[in-house]
Structure formats: structure tokens, C-alpha cells
Backbone:
């Protein structure tokens, strides 16, 4: 048996061809003869690798089918071999019909091959573009897009905030300290009218740093009697003496 | 009041019909023609008359895909194809797949593969899609919800069919074929009939 | 040996020419037609004859772009042309501008530009005005007294809104939109001292 395997797509193709080579009506085909020939082909030919798995399933199925047909009948609830064989025959018949359908289609007068339509159709429509397509989702999308772009494009500018600097605190401390006679609470030297808590905290921190700086240079004395208690400052003795002199 | 054949009104309607169908790249449905005709002109009557007049001309009016279109006469194809580029033929696998879709539509790809007894490769589907011969319409309510494939109006046009009913009946596909003579099976020892 | 007019050969050449020009997707040059004609037929002569025959017919042969093509007769154009409504899409800039007016009305043009982070050209505003989607209502008491823009009832109609309150809140559209000048400042997170 000689078969050109290149034309085959799968086991059904092969079975169909085998069926045809038997020159019989597929619907009345001998499954057993088919199985025998199929096995022959499997043994005789190099099978394309990508088809092997498909073919193996078909071979197993056919072998099982043949064994069912050869063995004496048993009573079993499963589908009997005849039904299965019939189903295979039906499938082969349908594939055969579809082959013929493809053949019939191929023989039809085809557009662009045997007959031609208008090559350069004319435009038969005038477009009235007075209306607009605009739906709510598009509007909302547009808003979000505009805002996102604007936000992304704007350079980052922190909120301008006038904070009391250490330098400011130093200047103020030096100015005011001389006027106070003895120990004075640090807060007393801070500017008034600071609205936000943040500004007040910043001023306090700057004031402390300024006082510490001044104390390091010997300009003033600092004392805190208890932890977290009020910070008291006064002019150092040297400075007082200098001033007095 | 209907415009009767051979009256000036009917002649004018014929002119409109010819121009409209000639200019169009797709088959023109009678309803579309009716919209273009003056009051009192019956599109089907006009189409019948136009078809009769164009018979035997180099460009003939044919009924196709639910409408009417001009097509070049068959015997002129060899002369034309000398200068017009002719698309290449669909491969056998694509033709078979197309036939299965045509006869079994709507059909899923696994069902096509079941009938063919082999996998349907993606390039095959791509080729059919590219020619607009098939399309999907919805999904099957089955595991995986596979797409359902159907043929397009373009399919009818390609093969010169008025409708899917023009396809040969399934029973005709086998029994009328001479290549498969109906020889009764030889007696086999284990013949299953 | 030339095929002469009114001989069968010439008639056949005319048929080929008609079918070829019909099927061609661009005007057919005489040289191209010549390739399709049988030996001894002169393409220019065939074209001249075909042009003469088609004169006055609903589809006429015209010389165009150095070649020949069939065109429907001009006087039939009104009958076969269909007016199709193709609604336009609003350009992106117009859509954004409209959205900003909707959300920030009444708003001046400088404010719109500030919110968009980009300029708004006059034609954009004109287009929205022309479609009756926006209008002006008074002027802002600020340098230059710029016009204040608001949306119209037509705007609500176009977008299927019962009222402006139907628009989703801005925060739902753009999260963390801190740069918006119209959002009140958030309260300070800490309170110390």
C-alpha cells in the first residue's frame, strides 16, 4: 500500500482515504478491513511527528474496536462496538461530505477569479456632520485627563511659609535680653501673633537654638529646674559687668 | 399608480438602478434601490428588466448575497486576468474548514476539529478572516465559552450564492459524486455493515 | 492587420475593454488595455468607440488621470447619493474645556487655562458656543473684567443629565487633586504647643 502522507492532516483523513481506496460507500464500510489497512500504514510509513499523538489515539481506539469485534459478545452496559463503529462511520461520512462541499465551493464561479465586481466603487454617500457624538463618559474622561495633565505639569512649589529662623531669634534675643533684669522664661522672647501651632513650635525651637548658641559664647546663662519645666535665661555675669562698666 | 415598462418614468428608473448598482461595491438590496427610485416605481420590476437587458453584455446583472450586483461575464475572465491581479487560491485545508463552517454554522472551533479529525491551524482561520469569508457571532454556552463561527455575506459574494440555501443539500454532496462510486462492499469475514 | 469597427473581432475587443475597465480599481491606461486585447486590436480605437457608445448612458466612460474609467452620469448623482448622518466627535481640547466649564462654572478663560494647565484657543470656545453647549453670563469683577462661562441647558441635554448635580464629584474623577485652586485647604494635621 502506497500513501502520500503529505496531504494528510490527521487520522480521519487517512481513514477516509483508506475507505476510498476500498472503493466503497463509506456508510457501508468494513471497519475491520479499515483497521487492518490502517495498522499496515502505521507500520509501513514514517509518520510526521506532530501527527503521531493524534494517530496513536486513533490507533488505540481502532485496536480496541477491533478487539471488541473479534471477542465473543459479553453482556455489558457500555456502548457496544457496533455503535462505536457506526459513529466512526458517521464521522467519516461527514468529513467526506465536507470534502465534497469544499470541492463544490472550489468549482463555483468565484469573485475575483472567474468574474469581477466593480473595481473602483463610487462613493454613494454624503456625510452630514452637523451632529456631535459626545457622551458623559467622554466628558468625565476629558476632565480627569485635563486635571491630571495640569497637576503633573505644575512644578512642585511648597506652600510659602514664614517661619521664625534661628538668625531671627538670635537678633531678637540680643535686642530684648538687655532690657530684662533677671531670669526670664524663654517664651517671653518669642514674637507675638504667631497664628499656627507649627509657627509657634518653629519659633520656640529657633529661640532655644539661639539661646544655646548665645550661652555657648558666654553671652547668657540658661537654667531649667525640672525636666520639661520652663527654660529660664538671663544675661551672663560677664556681659552684665561689661554693660555696667 | 405604477410606472410601466417602456414608459419614460420606467426608463428613468432603469437608469437610476443601473447607475446605483454600478457605482456600488457591494450587492444592492431591492429595498435600498427602492429608496432611490421615484414614487410609483417598483424596485423588483426594475431589477428584473435591468437583468434582462444586461444579459449577454460584458458586464451582467446578477442576483447575489441577497442583492444585485454587476459582474463581468465569465468568458471574459481569461482576457481580464491577464492584466488584473488574481488572488491566490485558498489552500485545501482552508476550503474544507470553510465548507464545515458553511454547513454547520454556527460552529465552534473544537467542533470543526472534531469533524475534520484534525486540528485547525491558526493560519487557516487567519486566511478565512482576512478574506472576510467568516466571522464569529457570539459564544457557545459551554465550558470555555468558545466563539461561534459563521459565514459572512462576503462568503456568498465570493462564491456567487444568493443565500446559504443555494448550497447543495448535504445528501447531494456524496451520492452525486462520480469519484466515489457506490460499489457494494466486498464480503469480509468480519464485515460490519 | 487591424480589427476594424463593426467586425466581430472589434466587438469582442469592446467587450474585453468594458469588462476590464469595470473591474479595474484605477483608471485603465491604453497600454494596459492593449495587453488584454487580442492581436491586431488597437486600444485607443477601442476606447474611442467605447466612449462614443457609453455617451448618454447612465454609466459613461470618461478619461481621467491619464486613463479611462466608468463614472455614473452626473445628473443621476442626486438620485443615487444617500445623505448619511455622521456625527462629529468633539476634539479633545474642546471636550476638556467643556468639562472644566461644567465643573467650575462660572469660570473665566484665564481660569480655565489655569485649571487645564494649557492654553485654550479661541476656535475651541467658538466651537462650543456654536454647538450651544456653553454661553457667557456676566463678567468677573477683576482686572480686564473677563467674561464668565457657564454651560447651557443644551449641555445637560447632550450629556443626558437632569442637572449639574448629576455630574460625579470631582474627587471621584481625580484623586489627590491638590493643585485645584477651588478646593478648600485641608486643616493642619498637628496641633502642638
Residues:
Amino acid at each position: 500500500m502506497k500513501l502520500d502522507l503529505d496531504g494528510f492532516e490527521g487520522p480521519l483523513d487517512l481513514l477516509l482515504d483508506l475507505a476510498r481506496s476500498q472503493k466503497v460507500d463509506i456508510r457501508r464500510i468494513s471497519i475491520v478491513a479499515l483497521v487492518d489497512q490502517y495498522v499496515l500504514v502505521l507500520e509501513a510509513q514514517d509518520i510526521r511527528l506532530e501527527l503521531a499523538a493524534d494517530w496513536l489515539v486513533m490507533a488505540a481506539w481502532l485496536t480496541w474496536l477491533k478487539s471488541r469485534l473479534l471477542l465473543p459478545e459479553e453482556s455489558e452496559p457500555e456502548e457496544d462496538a457496533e455503535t462505536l463503529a457506526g459513529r466512526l462511520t458517521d464521522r467519516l461520512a461527514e468529513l467526506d461530505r465536507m470534502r465534497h462541499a469544499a470541492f463544490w465551493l472550489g468549482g463555483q464561479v468565484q469573485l475575483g477569479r472567474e468574474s469581477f465586481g466593480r473595481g473602483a466603487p463610487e462613493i454613494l454617500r454624503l456625510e452630514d456632520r452637523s451632529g456631535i457624538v459626545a457622551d458623559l463618559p467622554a466628558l468625565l474622561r476629558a476632565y480627569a485627563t485635563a486635571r491630571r495633565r495640569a497637576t503633573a505639569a505644575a512644578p512642585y512649589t511648597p506652600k510659602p511659609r514664614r517661619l521664625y529662623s534661628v538668625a531671627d531669634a538670635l537678633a531678637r534675643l540680643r535686642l530684648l535680653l538687655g532690657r530684662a533684669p533677671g531670669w526670664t522664661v524663654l517664651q517671653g522672647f518669642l514674637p507675638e501673633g504667631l497664628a499656627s501651632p507649627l509657627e509657634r513650635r518653629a519659633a520656640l525651637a529657633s529661640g532655644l537654638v539661639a539661646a544655646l548658641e548665645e550661652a555657648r559664647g558666654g553671652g547668657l546663662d540658661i537654667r531649667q529646674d525640672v525636666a520639661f519645666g520652663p527654660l529660664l535665661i538671663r544675661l551672663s555675669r560677664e556681659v552684665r559687668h561689661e554693660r555696667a562698666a | 399608480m405604477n410606472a410601466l415598462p417602456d414608459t419614460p418614468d420606467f426608463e428613468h428608473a432603469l437608469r437610476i438602478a443601473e447607475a446605483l448598482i454600478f457605482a456600488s461595491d457591494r450587492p444592492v438590496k431591492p429595498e435600498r434601490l427602492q429608496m432611490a427610485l421615484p414614487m410609483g416605481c417598483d424596485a423588483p420590476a426594475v431589477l428584473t428588466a435591468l437583468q434582462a437587458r444586461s444579459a449577454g453584455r460584458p458586464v451582467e446583472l446578477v442576483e447575489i448575497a441577497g442583492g444585485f450586483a454587476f459582474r463581468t461575464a465569465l468568458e471574459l475572465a481569461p482576457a481580464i486576468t491577464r492584466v488584473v491581479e488574481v488572488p491566490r487560491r485558498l489552500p485545501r485545508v482552508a476550503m474544507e474548514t470553510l465548507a464545515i463552517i458553511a454547513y454547520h454554522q454556527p460552529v465552534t472551533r473544537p467542533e470543526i476539529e472534531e469533524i475534520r479529525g484534525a486540528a485547525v491551524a491558526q493560519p487557516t482561520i487567519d486566511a478565512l478572516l482576512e478574506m472576510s469569508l467568516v466571522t464569529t457571532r457570539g459564544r457557545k454556552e459551554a465550558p470555555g465559552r468558545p466563539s461561534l463561527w459563521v459565514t459572512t455575506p462576503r462568503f456568498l459574494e465570493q462564491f456567487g450564492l444568493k443565500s446559504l440555501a443555494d448550497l447543495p443539500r448535504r445528501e447531494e454532496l456524496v451520492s452525486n459524486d462520480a469519484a466515489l462510486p457506490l460499489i457494494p462492499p466486498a464480503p469480509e469475514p468480519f464485515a460490519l455493515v
In short: Residues 8-23 of chain C form the longest helix (16 residues).
